[in-house]
Specification:
Elements: H1 3-23, E1 26-30, E2 38-42, E3 46-57, E4 61-67, E5 79-84, E6 88-96, H2 102-109, E7 113-119, E8 126-135, E9 141-144, E10 147-150, E11 155-157, E12 170-177, E13 181-192, E14 194-205, E15 210-221, E16 227-236, E17 260-263, E18 274-276, E19 279-283, E20 288-290, E21 294-307, E22 309-315, E23 330-341, E24 355-362, E25 368-376, E26 384-406, E27 411-421, E28 428-435, E29 439-445, E30 450-453, E31 456-463, E32 468-478
Parallel strand pairs: 1-4, 2-16, 14-24, 17-21, 22-28
Antiparallel strand pairs: 2-3, 3-13, 4-12, 5-13, 6-12, 7-8, 7-11, 8-9, 9-10, 14-15, 15-21, 16-19, 16-20, 18-19, 22-23, 23-26, 24-25, 26-27, 27-32, 28-31, 29-32, 30-31
């Protein structure tokens, strides 16, 4: 080869290596946002997180390491939007949730060397030896000075962290754009591990027939990520989601006993929801910090002196009308129900998200007592709410089928006797609600019924003190 050709070859090689070096992306650690995250939390254990992050793009390409993200982050939902600066294009992203643990260090050390520090029992001095990690299956196996050791009493010292391991999960984005610029961007993603539910506390005054109702938003952060001074919105309603295939590694399980219960003791006024398509949005009016593995309760509603109707109700089952049940009396007790209407006139008139209502009242001595609890569904303004608090011990009910006739292939006649007893020293009113399937009519009855809806017959019975009232009726059912 001539001298000129050698010089040309060296020049091309240097140019090629220089170009290759220029294409290597620089790693930029983008710190977690502090106090500027927006959390939109849904009821079924997921949330949308939006947070601002600032970084300097050193060259035309870089690797942005977004730390401080939840382990439950769904990487396929993440996107980066530039708010200030020239456009930045994401060409690749990696979600690194293989966080550092002692077990991970051991797994990565198999086949490599570590230092083993043990104590000489004779003089108490520490001894440091080099060892090769042969296996960690069912215990640690080390090779030290050509000998195989198990259950070695020493502690291991690793030379360095294995490549790719981090103390906390990180979203790594490979980006391109104009170099040497300061960028302010918004990182958005969906994540599991954030959830909320409504919890209601009701104080019922039986003398006035009124009830005070408080609603709490119980928010749980099971992600292990801190969200200080966040703007928070809570979504009430059902949002459809497609379930992806399960991840290759189990997500970190949230342990309830590790949660820090932070409950607000009082709040002023109520938070009015706003409609958003088929859901309602509750915007928390102040910045809220939500620490890792923390449950916090925020006030949503504080309604006073709601008019409430206390009722005793007996309900049967639709299948009672479709089969022969003579000689099989059904024993029950009247249920205690508190019913109210979600209207402005009733001191409410706002959409109520579904949740558990716990009702407290007073006993004969005026001491507060727990009366019972029930779950309500999402209730729009104007809707009726009925709370089943349990059964009245003093109002037993016996239901007995007196006759069952199949007149044709699709028509049946069934006769029932419902006996309502009252052990109280005062009369009571009991509603008997019979859910009857198909097309039906009451052919004969001892007390007049009403039809609250197409599938139910309602009898309102007055039961005397220390007495009983007997209802008999025949239903003609067409299927």
């Amino acid at each position: 080869m001539t001298l000129s050709r050698c010089i040309l070859a060296v020049t091309l090689a240097l140019a090629s290596s220089t170009a290759l070096a220029q294409t290597v992306a620089q790693v930029v650690e983008v710190p977690a946002a502090t106090g500027n995250a927006d959390l939109t939390i849904y009821g079924n254990n997921f949330a949308m997180v939006r947070e601002r992050r600032s970084f300097k793009l050193p060259g035309a390409s870089a690797q942005l390491v977004m730390g401080g993200v939840p382990r439950e982050l769904q990487a396929e939902t993440a996107f980066l939007q530039v708010l200030k600066g020239d456009a930045v294009r994401v060409t690749e992203q990696i979600f690194n949730f293989d966080v550092l643990t002692p077990q991970k260090l051991l797994e990565r050390a198999v086949g490599g060397e570590v230092s083993v520090i043990s104590v000489n029992p004779g003089n108490g001095r520490e001894i440091t030896e080099r060892a090769r990690v042969l296996s960690i299956n069912d215990g640690l196996v080390l090779e030290i000075n050509g000998k195989i050791h198990t259950n070695h009493p020493g502690r291991l010292v690793f030379d360095s962290l294995p490549a790719g391991t981090r103390a906390r999960p990180a979203l790594i984005m490979s980006v391109t754009g104009k170099g040497a610029q300061d960028v302010e961007a918004e990182l958005s993603y969906l994540t599991g591990g954030l959830a909320w539910r409504p919890d209601y506390v009701a104080q019922y005054d039986s003398d006035s027939g009124r009830m005070d109702l408080l609603a709490w938003a119980t928010v749980t952060n099971a992600t292990g990520t801190n969200f200080p001074n966040a703007k928070m919105k809570l979504i009430a309603g059902d949002v459809n989601r497609s379930r992806p295939a399960p991840p290759p590694m189990p997500m970190r399980a949230y342990k309830a006993e590790a949660a820090d219960m932070a409950m607000a003791q009082s709040f002023a006024g109520s938070i009015a929801p706003t409609a958003s398509l088929a859901t309602h949005v509750y915007t928390i009016p102040k910045l809220t910090s939500l620490g890792p593995f923390e449950t916090k309760q925020l006030g949503l509603l504080n309604a006073q002196a709601i008019p409430v109707r206390r009722q005793l109700t007996v309900r049967s089952e639709p299948h009672f009308y479709m089969q022969q049940m003579r000689g099989q009396p059904q024993e029950a007790r009247a249920a205690i129900e508190l019913t109210f209407t979600n209207t402005t006139a009733a001191k409410l008139g706002t959409p109520l998200p579904g949740g558990i209502v716990r009702v407290y009242g007073q006993d004969a001595e005026g001491a507060p007592q727990f009366m019972g609890e029930d779950t309500i569904q999402h209730t729009a303004a104007g809707g009726d709410i009925s709370l089943n608090l349990g059964n009245d011990f003093d109002v037993p009910v016996q239901r007995e089928q007196l006759n069952y006739v199949r007149a044709t292939d699709n028509i049946t006649l069934t006769t029932w006797r419902v006996t309502v007893s009252n052990a109280k020293s005062r009369p009571v009113t009991v509603r008997v609600i019979e859910p009857i399937p198909g097309s039906w009519e009451i052919a004969k009855e001892s007390h007049a019924h009403t039809k609250p809806d197409a599938g139910s017959a309602l009898w309102t019975l007055e039961v005397p003190a220390k007495g009983k009232t007997v209802l008999e009726y025949t239903a003609r059912v067409t299927q």
